[in-house]
Amino acid sequence: MSFAWWQKGVIYQIYPRSFQDTNGDGVGDLEGVRRRLDYLVWLGVDAIWLSPFYPSPMHDFGYDVADYCNVDPLFGSLAAFDALLSEAHQRGLKVILDFVPNHTSNAHPWFLASKRSQNDPKRDWYIWRDAAQDGGPPNNWVSHFGGSGWTWDEATRQYYYHAFLPEQPDLNWRNPQVRAAMHEVLRFWLRRGVDGFRVDVISHLIKDAAFRDNPVNPGWTGNGPDIIRFKQTFSSDQPEVHEVIAGLRQVVEEFEDRLLIGEIYLPLDRLVAYYGDNLKGAHLPFNFQLLDADWNAAGIARLIGNYEAALPKGAWPNWVLSNHDRPRVAARVGAEQSRVATMLLLTLRGTPTLFYGDEIGIGHVEVPPERFQDPWAKREPGLGVGRDPSRTPMQWDASVFAGFSTREPWLPLTADHETRNVSTMSGDETSILALARKLLCFRREHAAVNCGAWRLLSSDDDVLAYERRSENERVCVALNFSNTTKRWRSAMCESATIVLSTLGDRVNEPVGSDVLLRANEGVLIQ
Ligand code: GLC
Ligand code: CA
What we know:
Elements: H1 5-8, E1 11-14, H2 30-35, H3 37-43, E2 47-50, H4 78-90, E3 94-99, H5 109-114, E4 128-129, E5 150-153, E6 158-161, H6 176-192, E7 196-199, H7 241-253, E8 259-262, H8 268-271, E9 284-285, H9 297-310, E10 318-320, H10 329-345, E11 351-355, H11 375-379, H12 422-425, H13 432-445, H14 447-450, E12 453-458, E13 463-469, E14 474-480, E15 486-489, E16 498-501, E17 514-517, E18 522-525
Parallel strand pairs: 1-2, 1-11, 2-3, 3-7, 7-8, 8-9, 10-11
Antiparallel strand pairs: 4-6, 5-6, 12-13, 13-14, 14-18, 15-17, 16-18
Helix pairs in contact: 6-7
The protein binds alpha-D-glucopyranose and calcium ion.
């Protein structure tokens, strides 16, 4: 059996605003990513996914695209991108772009044309509807960032729909011209040599044809952000979306060995539908289940087992612990368990996506209200929905702005950045960075871990243990989810040895009929 690069490899997510600034404006840029490629090789990842760097008014930090085929001057130029791409490829790193097809910026020429008049040829490229009888919005759909999903355009006397900000009008994917134009965008980058796409809110592309009201969420308690007041029954995850995704997949398959990932926040049974008929949907529908899972061995074991069981035949799994939209793993489970989480992520079956900064254990970063950047935090204050704490700069060394920039960065650093940085931690064998690197190295070298089978061994008493097995080797992982010592009994592991502990020691320790796990410790046994 042979495996594609994206099945064996590990993806590293870079939020370009926060990786490395090279021109002293406090915001990261593509040249910064280029200069840090050697770090990524040293770390041992296989591919980078770059969050959007396209020309944008930055209302949603680049997820409001004004030109799909260029680079915003804030981040550099097409030449800077090409340099980054070719140097990444020289080092054996794949490059995945963020494709944002659900909506454009309201500054995109397509939208400017569309709002010119009700008769403009591009009118139907977006979603325009007449007002309801009372003059209000056409239905009850709300924006993910609060308020109605509909904005009135006085000049042409209709509402347009935006699942996110009013500055992010949704494209009408029922229109074949929109599909064709967006397929050309994919080809533009594929011809340039990119290795794949992560597709933003892929499940939103098609909306109910009749624009029916969404039902009220029965679980709504009167608190929390607007978006949870209703179930998204008619505004997302419509059956026709799969045909659109198959179309994207076809374009990707015009080129060799390219990858299509979909961003999908849906329950498991809905999620796995995004592999598509005959697996001709997304190669990897992002699996976000660990993002809000209760952190205990029994629960995580159940989650893994259910996911493995739900996967369509031949579908390849994937795992995500953090991203730029959700609290970081170390902020959720704490510094000690975040090591266990790192071992989990990098030893499960399926492609892991590692979020920049998680490898140095960046946890919760306090962002004072006057420094809020995220539009969601500003539109719905006081709810804790802000995403800024997950988007703080990467920390490279002990210098004043952690080697990220020569001036105050756009978001704050962690309070402990003088020690929590790549330069300091790479010299410490017991750091989480050293752990991540050893795990990445082990994963790459052992087929049992990068493409072998997964089998649960035990989830009792706060210990999650599983086996990874390929034709020629077997590796066991035992993770202590508690902060007390545990004894895990497994005959399985007799005459094997510990090859790695999350605490940085115990290498080559022989394993008897049971394994002693210290508080918050995970071990790899071979
Ligand atoms: C996705 C992105 C998020 C963005 C939203 C709208 O969820 O990950 O950052 O705000 O789509 O594009
Ligand atoms: Ca910069």
